[in-house]
Design goal:
heterodimer, A: about 80% helix, B: mainly alpha, two-stranded antiparallel sheet, 11 helices, globular
């Protein structure tokens, strides 16, 4: 009886490890397949030409993704800046100010905002934000500005909920000490709590950046998909994600490989951000 | 002194105002989105819309095929991801010791959670659809989506397992039960709430997923005949309706259906988490 039992234990332990290993295998396979399809075409075009080329014209086999890189970074950074400002203040409200009824209104609201599918955000943007921009500022409406507005709404819950956790983790002694020294509540929040919660807040902002740059369907529907450098906020743009999603529908051959190459660039962006988040989180643990 | 305190009052007032403004803006945006989608969509949701097949030329413009495809997608993806995710979480919580293996697994799980859907879509297309020749099918879509929800299941389940008091395990082991029996009979039943919550959160994520399934599951509008056929999920359907802009009523109705589904799933997750006192998480 004993050896059988021992064998079962061993076999199941190995099974558990295998399942945990599937995540590793998946990341390896994803990297491998994206790089395998995208890498050679980057080499063929030339890294400089591919990254910094300003013309994307698949019909002539000209593939430069600089306009998409610029659009992704611009829309991501603007959205995260706005989202962080609103999200941090909302988080402060939730942790330091809100009482029962406000809490019970705001918390589910943030949860739901986080759960709304990106295609619904895109549809919402397409039917409200885009026409509004068209009327107010002219142009087609589908624009960098529209993408920024929708992305701001989408990163808001991420940043808010992580900032809430970070603020809650600040020991109460800090608040009491600050108040006892005669600081007002606001001085306590801005001069004591924010610095103390900085690593957590930073991690939230970085995660929000990753979300904004990786977001696809919402941006695809509102940004206008014109692969040219924007000269103003109301110009239509195409992001890296939009480039892939928009053209995968009909691309083949080298064109399709160029979309995988776009994926390689996006993938590296996101992985760098993830590494940065890990770094920031580790710094928090050590402090 | 007096001047300074006056300044202080002003600064405090501004800060308080900003904080209230931000909170109201957040609530306002959500209320506006929800109200807009529901007011525009609800009037166009009727019985035929839910139960008809989709033959726009023939006057049938229902979303039944999309509902069935979405259910297939959820079912198959959960069938793959739940066992893998739960077993992986058991490994992380019960067996793993600090060290390089654990670090690599953690890094991989976190990375999986951070990879954008469109990258999953590309990978699913290159690997499941093309390399192992599943073609654009519900199976290929489900496999792709399963990879996306594994981190959700692992994270939430692991947290639930870790919340099981040590004394439970020690009591069971002291009674002569093996580690496996302890996990099966004592730890897992105690952590079932966390596992359930993670499954519900995953369903929410799958329902909303578009970029990862559009090029792995395809966009066929017929009712799928099994996991080998292509199918169009609800969210993919909304994308096409929105993009083509042919029927405003239908797109509004489809958006409302999606929003209601996600809100219901969200509520269910909250109720489950509260019932079992799980630390609430979010699918995203």
């Amino acid at each position: 009886m004993w050896p059988v039992r021992k064998l079962t234990e061993r076999v199941t332990a190995a099974l558990f490890l295998t399942c945990a290993g599937i995540a590793v295998l998946a990341v390896a396979l994803i990297s491998l397949f994206i790089f395998l399809r995208g890498g050679p075409v980057i080499a063929e075009i030339g890294l400089g030409k591919f990254l910094f080329g300003t013309t994307w014209q698949p019909s002539a086999d000209i593939y430069g993704i600089w306009p998409m890189i610029v659009a992704s970074i611009l829309s991501g950074l603007m959205a995260v800046t706005l989202g962080a400002a609103i999200g941090l203040l909302t988080a402060v409200f939730l942790v330091e100010i809100a009482t029962g009824p406000w809490q019970s209104l705001l918390r589910p609201a943030i949860d739901l905002l986080a759960g709304v599918p990106s295609v619904v955000y895109g549809f919402f943007g397409l039917t409200t934000v885009v026409p509004l921009i068209r009327v107010l500022f002219g142009g087609p409406g589908n624009s960098l500005l529209a993408a920024v507005i929708i992305l701001t709404i989408m990163v808001l819950p991420t940043i808010t909920s992580i900032a809430v956790e970070a603020l809650k983790a600040v020991p109460n002694d800090y608040r009491e000490a600050s108040l006892a020294l005669g600081a007002t509540k606001m001085q306590t929040i801005f001069r004591v709590l924010f610095p103390a919660a900085r690593p957590g807040i930073l991690a939230g902002v970085l995660l929000g950046t990753g979300r904004a740059i990786g977001e696809t369907m919402a941006v695809l529907l509102v940004a206008g998909n014109r692969p040219r450098l924007p000269s103003s906020l109301i110009d239509p743009v195409r992001t890296l994600t939009g480039n892939i999603a928009y053209e995968m529908a009909y691309a083949s051959g080298m064109h399709q490989d160029a979309l995988f190459a776009t994926g390689v660039v996006l993938f590296i962006f996101i992985m760098l951000l993830n590494l940065l988040v890990r770094f920031v989180v580790r710094e928090r643990r050590e402090n | 002194m007096l001047k300074r305190s006056w300044k202080r009052v002003l600064a405090d007032g501004t800060a308080t105002g900003l904080i209230w403004g931000a909170a109201l803006l957040t609530v306002g945006v959500l209320l506006f989105i929800v109200a807009y989608i529901l007011f525009q969509g609800l009037p166009h949701i009727d019985w035929p819309f839910i139960t008809d097949v989709y033959r726009p030329g023939l006057g049938q413009e229902g979303i039944l095929p999309m509902i069935i495809s979405t259910l297939y997608l959820i079912g198959v993806a959960l069938l793959i991801a739940v066992p893998v995710g739960v077993l992986a979480a058991i490994y992380l919580a019960e067996y793993a010791k600090e060290g390089p293996v654990l670090q690599v697994i953690r890094f991989a799980t976190e990375s999986l959670a951070g990879i954008p859907s469109i990258i999953y879509g590309l990978f699913g297309y290159a690997f499941f659809v093309t390399a192992i020749k599943l073609r654009m099918s519900i199976l290929a879509g489900s496999l792709t989506v399963a990879l996306m929800i594994i981190p959700i299941i692992v994270r939430t389940t692991e947290e639930a397992l870790r919340a099981v008091p040590r004394s439970y395990r020690e009591g069971s082991l002291a009674l002569g039960a093996s580690q496996l029996t302890t996990i099966r009979r004592v730890v897992l039943p105690t952590a079932i709430g966390g596992i359930l919550t993670s499954v519900i959160l995953s369903v929410g994520r799958i329902v909303g997923e578009t970029a990862a399934v559009i090029y792995t599951m395809g966009s066929a509008v017929a009712i799928p005949r099994g996991i080998a056929s292509s199918g169009r999920s609800l969210s993919v359907h909304l994308y096409f309706l929105a993009k083509e802009g042919t029927s405003v009523e239908q797109s509004h109705a489809a958006a409302a259906v999606l929003l209601i589904l996600v809100a219901l799933i969200n509520m269910l997750a909250n109720v489950t988490a509260r019932k079992y006192r799980v630390r609430g998480g979010s699918a995203r």
